[in-house]
Design brief:
single chain, 278 residues, seven-stranded mixed beta sheet
Amino acid sequence: MRAAILSLIERWSPALRQRLRDYASRRSWRRHEREIRPVTDAITTRSGWTVQGGPFAGMRYVQRAKGSVLLPKLLGTYEHELFDAIRTLSSRGPAAVVDVGCAEGYYAVGMARAVPNAAVYAFDIDPEARRLCGLLAVENGVEARVNVGGACDAAALEAILRKHGRVLVISDCEGYEGELLDPIKAPGLRGADMVVEVHEFAARGVTDVLLRRFRDTHDVARIPANPIDPGSIAALADFAPELRRKATSEFRPAGMEWLVCLSRSLACTTPVGSGASG
């Protein structure tokens, strides 16, 4: 009966269905944060509010995440699947980084630190996310280069691409990627590098759409989500296995993946990830 009701809501009011999903996610995250509070307290007491590993190690952090879990970011395990890609993309020297769906600024501020000469444009439709991103930029002394804004459409993206030329686009916008990342609307994307978290659950078929759009201009790696081994994290050695598992969980749906797209207009000798373009 519950499934039938949800199916009707999905058909007649997708907006209501999304609000119900958001509410359930917030409740789940709050419960999760309470369960792992002893781990968070121990980590921050020992090392402060600083990212411990990964490509953004040393980044000072705010005490709240927006739309995702906090502890994996502090541990330096967050989206570990992308570590090699982030290092490669940083080494390609983008003049600007565009982060659409920036949340509290993990990638926006992290990339501002990783690429010291780059201008960073961080977009999020959530006012609290924008506030936290601004605070994170100040905390790390990069506020002069991190421009925080609200909604980003293809026209706004194209304006940035035209202004800076060599650009890295990071997209995590819950299914809007199919609308935003369109080289017909934003031709500059053909020469931009991209990291796209694809959301098939929100926009069915979007992965294939993006693969078709960029197969002639980019080398594309499909990188699947793959939970990290909690036993490999030295900072969690003192905790029980179940608590270690919860501490590193990122609540990713089954089958989630990223597309890492390297523009062929830029020289690149370092392959990223595995998989083939579509």
